[in-house]
Specification:
Blueprint: H1 9-16, E1 24-29, E2 37-43, E3 46-52, H2 62-74, E4 92-94, E5 97-103, H3 115-131, H4 145-156, H5 161-177, E6 187-190, E7 199-202, E8 205-209, E9 216-219, H6 220-231, H7 243-254, H8 259-285, H9 298-311
Length: 312
């Protein structure tokens, strides 16, 4: 369960005294996610998400992340709006953590989406890229190539067995990839973590996109590559027949790739696979057993890197 910082009902009531949300009713932990602490918050019949941002989320990034969702929601995109307190701030402090109250979006994520639902998710990512235009705040990618090198170096100090074998393969991939970014590709605000569990569906349609805390300013095609790596494969890293094609079809229906983006996509796909291999490998090697989160298998993403190499 993704609750790193416990919050009691009395603590939540005290925090909400600075908000105009009505009387506190209940607080329930949300089991999804591995980065931050999330609660379902009920106040006089209205539901929100109470999020406490843990150490991996840089508090200085929150104006970008929350501002992007607010910008998107203001343009009709189904992103959750952050709620301002009476001082006009999106972020306060609760139990020593930056904390925010976020709009609750209806729907649920799909563990086994159909081809048409995968295509709809692709179209929604294209909408995100198009409607994020004009958002003036910028943020460098917090998990870009510089961070990959730092993660690999730390893993080198403790990797053994299967983790060591994966790390050796990652090191070879980093040498081969060099810097996979191409400056002349279209850039803008991206989600950077557009996985199925961050896309909500209701009645067969996308009802919301959540968890923008890896959001940044980067290549739009890289965001697509991350999403294809997330939606196009099962939990073991095996390609799902037709899924990559369905997602890309939905995306390009609204935002066709340039020729340069299409040519760069396999390389960016391998880069995306290495990025998530490294973060998962790091989390498994340095897992704190007191935290109620099970580390994800880095091998599942490392297998995606081989698929992208073949595609290139």
């Amino acid at each position: 369960m993704a609750v790193f910082t416990p919050v009691s009902d009395d603590q939540a009531r005290a925090f909400l005294e600075t908000y105009d949300l009505g009387a506190f009713r209940s607080l329930h932990p949300i089991a999804e996610g591995v980065e931050n602490t999330n609660y379902r918050l009920e106040t006089e019949g209205v539901r929100h998400v109470l999020t406490l941002f843990e150490a991996r989320t840089d508090a200085a990034s929150l104006p970008f992340c929350l501002g992007l969702t607010d910008h998107l929601a203001g343009r009709g995109f189904a992103a959750p709006r952050p709620v301002r307190n009476r001082d006009g701030d999106w972020v306060g402090t609760l139990n020593g953590r930056p904390a925010a109250v976020i709009e609750w979006l209806s729907g649920a994520w799909l563990r086994d989406p159909s081809p048409s639902e995968v295509e709809a998710a692709g179209a929604m990512l294209a909408r995100l890229h198009l409607q994020a235009g004009g958002f003036a705040v910028a943020r460098a990618n917090p998990v870009g190539p510089v961070a990959w090198r730092a993660l690999a170096d730390r893993c080198q100090t403790a990797a053994t067995g299967e983790d060591r074998a994966i790390l050796d393969g990652v090191e070879a991939a980093l040498v081969r990839l060099g810097d996979p970014w191409t400056d002349d590709l279209p850039r803008g605000p991206i989600h950077a973590d557009y996985f199925p569990d961050n896309v909500l569906f209701e009645d067969g349609a996308v009802s919301g996109v959540i968890d923008f805390y890896f959001g940044c300013t980067d290549l739009l095609a890289y965001d697509l590559a991350v999403a294809l790596s997330a939606w196009g494969f099962d939990g073991t890293g095996t390609p799902i027949p037709g899924a990559v094609e369905a997602f890309r079809r939905g995306y390009e229906r609204l935002r066709p790739l340039t020729l340069a983006e299409a040519a760069a996509l396999p390389r960016l796909g391998e880069a995306a696979a290495i990025r998530f291999t490294l973060t998962r490998l790091h989390d498994r090697i340095f897992h704190d057993p007191t935290k109620l989160v099970t580390p994800k298998d880095p091998g599942a993403f490392f297998r995606r890197a081989a698929w992208w190499r073949e595609a290139e």
